[in-house]
Specification:
- The protein has a single domain (14-69), classed as 30s Ribosomal Protein S18.
- The longest helix is centred in the C-terminal third of the chain and has 16 residues, at 54-69.
- It is 36% helix and 10% strand.
- It has four helices and two strands; from the N terminus they run E-E-H-H-H-H.
């Protein structure tokens, strides 16, 4: 999140969770991990919000699309 300090907002440094922790697996079957990368309307969150690197953002996007296709994640939420 961002902190207010003297008229300016400073955001914390975003570190890719998948680069920092090699044990987290990006898989379309792992819906609990993928839920963190979609917003309340069902869209895939951009890198600037999640802090993932470009390599892992591509893998996350493909996994979310695969999970949607087999109905593990919704396309849209109501």
């Amino acid at each position: 999140m961002s902190n207010y300090q003297g008229g300016r907002y400073y955001s914390r440094a975003k570190i890719c969770q998948f680069c920092a922790n090699k044990e987290i697996e990006i898989n379309y079957k792992n819906a609990e991990v993928l839920k963190h990368y979609i917003d309340e309307t069902g869209k895939i969150r951009p890198r600037r919000q999640t802090g993932t690197c470009a390599k892992h953002q591509r893998v996350v996007a493909k996994a979310v699309k695969n999970a949607r296709h087999i109905a593990l994640l919704p396309y849209v939420s109501e």
